[in-house]
Amino acid sequence: MMQLRKIALEKQAMVIGGNTTGIISTGKAMMGFFPYWLDRVYKPGRVGVMTRSGSLTNEVTAEIVKAGFGPSSIVGVGGDPVPLTRFAEILPLFEKDPDTDAVVMIGEIGGTMEEDVAEAIEQRIFTKPLIGFMGGRTAPKGQKMGHAGAIITAGKGTVEDKVEALAKAGALVADRPSMIGQLLQKVL
């Protein structure tokens, strides 16, 4: 994966994965392993979603729709320790997208992608409202949870670190998926 990421960066290409559910631009296109019915259930909206978790994507997107919004695009970056494209690399695309007014990020324990997002917000690379949710709040340190990317090592990648960095940068962070709709209503 590291070699493939290096080649993609050299070629200025964006490769999503590995271990990803794929990408949906609601009402336009769908690629990957999302359930076939998602495109019909989730009508187009103005909330971008970027996610490390396939199963939480369905729950969070349902909360977005229940709150009266819909997804503009959903990008699953995958759960591997070395993702080919990181959240912070996707943010500029959502920033430029006239069909996206806010972004919901579904993060997890392990790695530093969510902290990189906080840095992008602080550096004004991304200026739209961002709402985060971190899966794995009760995961024991050092134990793999579900896939290779969801492991806390060397004191990095904890939910607490991610929540603190995002809040400091000005993002809102939901304690549970059911809060996401309320937070969207607050910022949009």
The coarse overall form would be globular
CATH class: Alpha Beta
As a percent range, the share of helical residues equals 25-40%
Number of strands: 7
User: How many structural domains does the protein architecture include?
Assistant: 1
Unreliable spans = none
Amino- and carboxy-terminal Cα gap: 38 Å
Tell me about this structure:
With 188 residues, the chain is an alpha/beta fold. The protein has one domain: Succinyl-CoA synthetase domains (Rossmann fold, 3-Layer(aba) Sandwich), CATH 3.40.50. Strand 1 and strand 2 form a beta hairpin. The radius of gyration is 15 Å and the shape is globular. It starts with a helix and ends with a helix.
Short description:
The chain has 188 residues and is α/β, with parallel strands linked by helices. The protein has helices at 2-10, 38-41, 54-66, 87-96, 113-122, 159-169, 180-187; strands at residues 22-25, 29-32, 47-51, 71-76, 102-108, 130-135, 172-174.
What does the secondary structure layout of this molecule look like, with pairings?
Blueprint: H1 2-10, E1 22-25, E2 29-32, H2 38-41, E3 47-51, H3 54-66, E4 71-76, H4 87-96, E5 102-108, H5 113-122, E6 130-135, H6 159-169, E7 172-174, H7 180-187
Parallel strand pairs: 3-4, 3-5, 5-6, 6-7
Antiparallel strand pairs: 1-2, 1-4
Helix pairs in contact: 5-6
